[in-house]
Protein 1
Amino acid sequence: MSKANRWRRSAMVAATSAAVLLLASACAGTASSTATGGAGSSSGSPAPSSTAPLVIGASVSLTGDFADSGKAVKAGYELWADEVNKKGGILGRQVQMKIVDDTSSPTQVVTNYQNLITQDKVDLVFGPFSSLLTIPASQVAKRYGYAFLEPAGGGPKVFAQKLDNLFFVQPAPVVKSGDVFADWVLSLPAADQPKTAAYAELDDPFSAPIAENIRARFEAAGIKTVYQQVYPAETRDLSPIMTKVAAANPDVLVSGTQSEDAYSQVKSLVQLKFSPKFMYMSNGANSPVEFPSKVGAANVNGIMSAADWYPGSPAPTSPAFVAAYTAKYGGSETDIDPSSAEAFSAGQLLEAVAAKTGKIDNATIISSLHQGSWPTLVGNLSWDAIGQPTGSFSLIQWINQKLVPVYPADVSKATPVYPKPNWGG
Amino acid sequence: MTGSVHALIQGVVLGILTGGVYALMASGQTLIFGIMKVVNLAQGALVILAAYLSYTLFTSFGLDPLLTIPLTTVIMFGLGVVIQLVFLRPLKREDSAQLSLLVTFAVALLLEGFMSVVWKTTYRSTNTDYANSSWTFWGIQFTVVRVVAFVLSLVALGLLFLLLNRTKFGRAVRATVQNPMSAELLGVESKRVAALGFGLGAATAAAAGSVYGLLYPFNSGSHYDLISELLSIVVLGGLGSVGGAVIAALIVSTSSAVVATVFSPTWSSFTFFVILILVLLVRPQGLFGTVERGAL
Amino acid sequence: MSIRSLVRGGVFVAALMALPLLGFEHWVLNLMIFTLMYAAMSSAWNLVGGFAGYPSLGHAAFFGLGAYFVGLWFQHHAVVTGYEPFLVLPIAGLIAAVVGFPIAWIAMRTRADVFAIVTITLLFVAQTLAFNLDSLTGGAQGLAMPTPPFELARFEWPFYYAMLWILLASMGITYLSMRSKVGLSLDAIRADEDKALGVGVHVQGVKVLSFSISVALVAMAGGVWAYYETFTYPQFAFDPIITIGMVLMCFLGGRGTLWGPVIGAFILVPGQQYLAYRLGGSQFYLIAYAGVFLLIMLLMPRGILPTIADRVRRRRAIAASSEGPPPADASPPTAGPGSNVPVPSGGAA
């Protein structure tokens, strides 16, 4: 072995051990400053003092695939913190949000919750955006005994974990969000009910299952399935599928959609000049600004979707939320993403727990939320043992180019319009 | 029975119309490879950038995306030249093939980061008033946008063909593609050709991008989907062969549209890969590629 | 030399072995798990991409294969002690090697750049399969792993040591192959494949063998990762970013070297994860990341180790020549195993 090579080797080892040492010393610093950390460090010990800020950590996607929704969640968390602090905080403690970016990566989300809990020792945590990231994150929270209020992870596999510390802050699990449409259709007089149905479903954890749930209800009620198709997320072009839908000529089209595929479906149907009598889209059609701008305002009428919060929502705290939101971020009520309202609701739950019990720690939050019903922006929430909310979404419909709640009766502001007007009508 | 025949014909029509757009995108990609032996992983990002440019010109100034193509073409050409000069030229010859893969990937990330800052990550699409209209002949549907896109791609490809075959620059490019050494001996300035050639490859992204924005919703991350399809097409056609890329684009997009309409859309992207693997089994150099082995 | 390098290696191994015992907090071990994972995978990638010069962009296909194998195995087998998933890792590695063998056989008949494209295609094929074979894989709904039952205080230990073992295996194989005929053959292939073939190197066999070993190691890392994450989805397990991570770390540290990928991983993973945690709020994260990436490629195209080594050698040569005749061993590295200065390949000329 040459001298040069020998040198090279020692350089490598030196550099590597330097890196290890650097890392180690950086860690040792924090390790010595805070004794043990880990389970119950925040919930077990009494609150340090009544004036210490209440630090709440959350990891959301600020870059990557989920970035836009992630930012909406962040806006909701921060808005809530501002509002609660104006009222003097929680039990006299100012709320401090510590929001970090998970770059839409499952590896980073685990690192972030590990860091939030064991390095920065935040008092409480909120969830990230998307079921995909919620599952690994909720496992970390569970390990350290943290309550996990999450506004954006309601896929079936989240609940299949059977975690008792998890609470999905929406009125119903995602798969059941379309049930309100089935409820309404099946409540119609038999003569008015659709006889045939087609289903076009995006293959992701939050879309296809919604349509499948409706299909099960419809088939049980004797509505015949004339076409059913699942399509992968990278399908940019839905005209082949819509061509087949049109050929099958169903009375009702149930679309399990996200956003851009919903726009693409509508555009294709308009091109095909096929307008079914009933049309339900799980997502995409419930966005007040994007949807009409993408498919043309003249084409929205009669399309139905489900929502928990929407402009003009009857929730008592909604007007104040809208006022605060527009004051902080500008824009108008229709610009507010429901994800922001859901994130805001997670904060409202903490306030409510503190007001009811006079305590704000993880054990109290977990045990309190498992009982009773809790009013929020997105409705009155209650959960079963594994964090599934037991309520229901509202059915909304585009009427005269406006999104209006139409069912169930307690939220309805207009009579549902059926059959759906033709395109452009 | 007639229903499935009908679906089949519809699938073929759809595939051919879409194939034109892919042919345009892939021709830029394969041209860059031909001239510089660089697999340009940033081509997809360039297409998306061009789509954003024409989207912005449309939404802010009301300019029709088809009319702004000359303008975006100039911009993309300039950007391509800059990318070549700043990031690719400094690479040492001996390693350039491997390194350029990574460098162009980094450029793609850079563009993606830039686009997600400027345009956020919501899906956009250029919604012209003709976006939803269609013609129907013999029960087969021809959407206006797709037909326009197809014609436009043909025009752009035609111009590219003229440029390569009827101009001095084109001759220099073709000479470089065939044999860089002898081209140099014949007085072709290979460095200049490389810069201009990269610019030309990027310029094809301009027309492709405006069409892409008309057809599909896109966001800053869309280039990942695009690049894997473009790569399959150029490898299938034979790296460096523009004609091969056009034919491969038509084969690939027709077969995946047919699979989507006749069988299931779930397997449509899979057809890309199956065709690619089958061809490589028989002809490792692609349909129209020349055998070139060993050192890069 | 071998004693000194043994000592160095020993210190490195001992330091990493002892790390969990030193009472670090959970977040440190968490960071180390991901660092070791990437160090192991980057080392494994180096066997094909660095030594043979075939830049695979599809290694994440095997990462996902390992992840899904572990997940699927425990759909049908119970986890009692929590250590069972680690025990099936060798099977995951074996399957990856068996799957990788014919793929490498086909893909490596082509040139290195076509190889890169075919392998990235393979990655998307694997992802599509994971999505579409939903009765087997759970499709887009994802696949649940067994929940690790380890006690909180030492929760990260098993994952940490599993990743460490894979890293050591990876480095061990690299070290052995550098010192054997295989290493020489790989060097020759990278420099000029046709000449290597001409002088009797069993080119195809050597390439395919190194690919199989490489992907087996990556699959094992994927299995550990999935178990640690407790859940996996096709788009996460078969993620091009995972491949890019391996490649980048290898290039950063110095490809074709034993320690290069390890150094690359020890710099990039903590840097990346920590920066995203601390500064992720800024939208310029991706731009900054790409910028650093480009700077490295342009300023140190061969990686940190070879660049530093070069500089030092040059300085020594100058010093030596001013003192007397240059030492024989400063000559170009036709010399021994571990010669990591790429031989300029003017082969096409």
Note: Chain A has a mean pLDDT of 85.
Protein 2
Amino acid sequence: MSRDEVNVVWLGSPTFPKAAHDALLDTQLRHNLKHATTTIRDKRLRAVAELDDWETLRLAGSQIKDRVMRHLEEYLLQLEASVTAAGGVVHWAQDARQANRIVTELVRAKGATEVVKIKSMATQEIGLNEALQDEGIEATETDLAELIVQLNDDRPSHILVPAIHRNRTEIRDIFRREMGKHGVPAPDGLTDEPRVLAEAARVHLREKFLRAKVAVSGANFACADTGTVGVVESEGNGRMCLTLPETLITVMGIEKVLPSFGDLEVFLQLLPRSSTAERMNPYTSLWTGVTPGDGPQEFHLILLDNGRTKTLADTAGRSALHCIRCSACLNVCPVYERTGGRSYGSVYPGPIGAVLTPQLVGVGTSEHADSLPFASTLCGACYDACPVRIDIPEMLVHLRAKVVDSHRGGLPKPEALAMKGAQLVFGSPRRLALAERLGAMAGRIAGLGGGKWLPGPAKKWTGARDVPVPARESFRTWWRKAGRG
Amino acid sequence: MRIALFIACYNDMLFPDTGKAVTAVLERLGHTVEFPMAQTCCGQMHYNTGYRREADSLVGAFNDAFRGYDAIVTPSGSCGGHVRHHHETETAPNVYEFSEFLVDVLEVTDVGAYYPHRVTYHPTCHSLRMLRVGDKPLRLLRAVEGIDLVELPEAESCCGFGGTFAMKNAETSVAMLQDKMGNVRKTGAQALCASDNSCLMHIGGGLGRVKSGVRTLHLAEILAATR
């Protein structure tokens, strides 16, 4: 990844329409995305259809998260006490900078210059790898897809499948070119067979697992009552990180806390089926503090805020924090399917990114973040797929209103004027009837010239679509003339 | 039962034939339809684009225009969905999308229509996921005499219209449209119908631009057609 500062968003990201423009021109990218998203979409539908209580589970997931948000402070304090009692150390980080500093100091204290990492959104959000690199500490991503992204100095484009934009031939080329620079090189004659690629990654990573003194992870869940922290994954590389090194540092967003261990019953059903379309993920690792003689003997849990309490303060926007990072919303999103994840300019792409990113960084702080809530047709596919029933369309509209309101007061833009104009016209049936007559007249004039190509902002419509010509007689005029009303 | 037609502002101006078709079907079924002249716009475009204040200013007028009716029938799934979900008024629960009204309230699927053409149906997102009309439009279409109804591949994928999205994110919108058009053409249908002229304006605009020869029309216009 580039060395731009990362704090949720990639610095200097263009607005969504601008970024999408480039992505849409990349036919290979569109082909890869279409193939990957439609495959996983169908698999998810089948996995979900197996459970007759799926809707009840979604409701339970949503209600548990709701309760967590209402009593977040209590649960976090309880979690701190439980983790501490089990032999772990809890740290609190207000923002990315603080969290990165805590990790750096902990790694330094161990005298380590490298760490192995489990795939984690929280550490990506704070730009931990870049921060560690600045301090001379090399962080190696051990999730296969994250490794591909990291080796290629690329940016992830999906929450769960960060290299979804790459096909296997591209991956083979990346391995051949980059692996040798960071450790065990790719074997001669590497093919693009998935099995062969996985074996090359296994050999490359094994050396690092065996050498690393410190591992860094995120967390899918943390149970307040027991202090148990959990990570779910598919490859087992996470399990290696969680068991081999002497020290484990976990960076967790504060919203990941669950009231009790029993709540895992709900989430361990919701998450795998929604994310990888599996009944159960291959590796579920749960740990409670430290256990003498078994696994890491030092455990640090960093509780990260980084804009979350600000998001929590907005009662209409806070349910974005319910997200369990399954990425079902990305896979069903027709916009994501065309533009890919990098167009969102944030570590959180897709529909959930469009509602989470602007809240974490603040609405009205950048053109880029403010463009994200508009990157949706409000088709609602994301809401239907969300395992914790986050009403993403409603939240997008809520955030659009916040964006619009943040620009009120100054010189109105053409869009704001058009909206005002429409409000005025619709404010009275007589004004509307007059506007319809004028429209019909204008339509007839434009119609003479074909009505296909319009100037100004309307070009955005007529670039690829004919424009309908207003009817000679509006419905209300017809109704009146027909003596009906 | 007092039935009011809520035509939706863009239909009033751009697609008056849809309003005439809704009226014709309901009258054929023996009902009287009223058109409250005071109606203007439900405010969906304002609301969905973030102009909530402007949208709110239209809610009261909508409620006043439609007060006293047992059913407010609209040929727009998205405007119907908007009113039902976002207008907190006494009239909001009485709003029905046209196919819902026929199937759920009047309990008919065969409305006596005749349309001897190959037709495919696009379920619009708001009718599908906001109002949950399910297969009601298809049940109505299957009962049309002479129709050759063909299934649209990837039917439930959004067409890319999305209101102001079509302008704000025009390129993404058109990329989605191209896939939808490809699927429509695969069916070999002569006509594409839907429960919302706003999506059809976008799909039809694209189909017209490439001179596909596929006609777009509202579901109500098929149901209004007779021998």
Note: The two ends of chain A are 66 Å apart (CA to CA).
